Amino acid sequence: MPAASAPSRSPARSAVVLLSGGLDSTTVLATARREGFALNALTFSYGQRHSSEIEAAKRIAQSYAVERHQIVDIDLTVFGGSALTADIAVPKDRDLVAEAESEEIPVTYVPARNTIFLSYALAFAEVIGSTDIFVGVNALDYSGYPDCRPEYIAAFEEMANLATRAGVEGIERLHVHTPLISLTKAEIIALGTELGVDYSLTTSCYDPSTDGLACGRCDACQLRLKGFSEAGIDDPIRYVTSSGSALR
Considering 26, 105, 215, 246, which has the largest number of Cβ atoms within 10 A of its Cβ? Predict the structure, then answer.
């Protein structure tokens, strides 16, 4: 009798992962890989002052051997309206507890950023035949950004299924995965550590030094440091001290 052939293995489903180079998006990338997806990463150079995140995203994409890493150049500085895209000071040393209780949207919010990014991800997904988009939005430690809320994600997903060929033809619905949306920063870090994420590759700072060191004082740095402290894990990236020297 002829030898039995080995069972064929179905190809992995492709996913598009929004990869900023930060802690959250890297954890999401690791989560998508754990779920068995073939990884395609999408990173944006949109005129942000913390452009060191682009280099971080490149390192992370290479580390995870993503099938395709697309870096898209768009210029949101033409609109401004944010401390990340205009000549507006990045807030430092704020009381994040008080800010979380406030309904005021921080000046670091970039108008319509997630809508723009997810729209590009939707186009990318259609081209590669994917119905899965992963994004690292968070509704707990989200700094009051309106485009990180669950109701926003649900609305975008509904719109996407009205606007795509697969959705209209009823082939398969597109899903926007938000695995971190209900986790604290400490829980995100614990999850990533469990998945083997190398957080030394990531960056979170809104206003890094010219050599890429994190300031340690902006909202993003404070949330990151708080998360690592509560998780009982050392943060592996370097920070600038008040004297301007580097601090591990």
Answer: 26
What is the enclosing helix (H) or strand (E) of 229? helix 219-231
The burial class, CB within 10 Å (0-12 / 13-18 / 19+), for 73 is: exposed
Nearest-CA neighbor of 128 among 44, 67, 202, 76?
67
pLDDT at 8: 43
With a cut of 70, list the residues of the chain below it in pLDDT. Answer: 1-11, 97-102, 141-143, 241-248
- Domain assignment present for residue 7? The answer is no
> CA-to-CA distance for 12 and 130, rounded, in angstroms?
11
Domain count, the chain: 1
| Residue 154, CA distances (Å) to 31, 133, 176, 182, 236 in order | 20, 13, 8, 14, 34
Q: How far is CA 143 from CA 102, 110, 124, 220, in A?
A: 10, 12, 28, 9
The residue with tokens 């990180």 is 148
pLDDT computed for residue 144 by the predictor: 74
Instruction: Give the domain range for residue 186.
Output: 14-203
Q: Can you name the residues that pair with 70 across neighbouring β-strands?
A: 42
Q: Could you tell me if residue 95 is inside a domain?
A: yes
- The number of angstroms, rounded, from the C-alpha of 152 to the middle of its chain's C-alpha atoms is 16
Tell me which DSSP letter residue 164 carries. S
Tokens of 19: 């990869």
End-to-end CA distance of the chain: 65
